[in-house]
Amino acid sequence: GYGSIADSVTALGVANGAPIFQDGTKTYAYLTAEALNADIVATSKTGIGILKNSEGTITMPDFYKYYPNLAEQIEPNYNINPNLVVISLGTNDRWQGVTADEFADKLVEFAGTIRAKYPNVPMIFLGGMMIGNKEFNASYAAAADALGGEDAGFYSYVTTSYSTSHPISTEHEVYSAELVEFITSKNILK
Question: For the CA atoms of 93, 159, 80, 67, what is the dihedral angle to 10 degrees?
Answer without folding.
Answer: 20
